[in-house]
Structure prediction request, 340 residues.
Amino acid sequence: MSKRKLNQQQQNRIASKQAAVIDNPFDTELLRGLVISHHGKEVEVLLVDSADTPGSQASKRCHFRANLPTIVCGDRVLWRPLAQTNTGIIEGLLTRDSLLQRPRPYQDPKPVAANIDTIIITLAAKPEPISSLIDRFLIAAENAKLEVCLLLNKEDLLADNPTVAAELEHLLALYSSLGYRIFRFSAQASPTSLQQQEFIDFIADKNSILVGQSGVGKSSIINVLAGSNTAKTAAISSANDKGRHTTTTSQLYPLKENSIAGSGAIIDSPGIREFGLWHLSPEAIIEGLPEFRVHADLCKFRDCEHGKSHGCALQLAFEQGKIHPSRMSSYHHILSSLDN
Ligand SMILES: Nc1nc2c(ncn2[C@@H]2O[C@H](COP(=O)(O)OP(=O)(O)OP(=O)(O)O)[C@@H](O)[C@H]2O)c(=O)[nH]1
Ligand SMILES: [Mg+2]
Ligand SMILES: [Zn+2]
Prediction:
């Protein structure tokens, strides 16, 4: 469906129309639903019995009204069954608590998932983590005011790889020292270990999304958590230790009472190598780097890029070892990508 650019008046009119749909208690044909995936002109909608809880596992393919904004997984909708075709039509979108978007160059950001409270940055020994990608996810999450944590998967691989293990511990220690929670998991370990249980308890009642590079095991983790083998997985390439981009569209999985986690939901997302931050200003980039903020605030130069200027407070903090070189390097890479 082509997306027209709407002016504010048109947007307001649509919003009030949608509100009318939502507030009409006499339209008994309208059902609540939770969008679990997006397939071009249709979405898969899970039936919901109460405001937020996914009900039976039954889901239905639905079209959506052209005047609605782009519908994404995690959206709560009102829809009407169409008996003839055994499909449905989405008539209204309920207010979103949050919207996670993926920025694109020269285009509006692409909505990815709605009503998320926690972003789980997933990494593993193989494929090797890209620390600048982790920083980009963290900056985006900080700016979106979403809870964020790191999840090391494939913990089972570490015992035989002491060098790789030491490097990973170094990386995790950095993020832990910055205040981010770190969890450890192995989608291949059974029975559930104490540290896996810690992660399972953490996500139990949340709506979370697994993000990260292709091949780190996001879909494998989903299969453990949701207690089924529904998410497709594939071995990483033996030639270059990279993932094969097996998951191609985000998909929501309810964590039902009969799964090992609680009653929230978790979203599997396609693996990515790059995450642009074109939508953010240089100030917002600093906002997303918590340990930078105080030093940037102290900097006496106006519009300082906190590069090599003599007397820059951030540069001084870096020289004094208060800012990690890999974070400084991410910061400067991101700043130069904004210029381009
Ligand atoms: N040893 C080990 N292998 C794992 C673990 N988790 C996943 N794998 C393997 O890693 C490979 C990639 O797993 P996927 O779940 O497809 O990875 P993904 O992150 O979903 O990848 P994309 O969908 O491409 O983004 C598969 O061969 C999995 O069996 C783990 O905890 N330990
Ligand atoms: Mg996958
Ligand atoms: Zn400065």
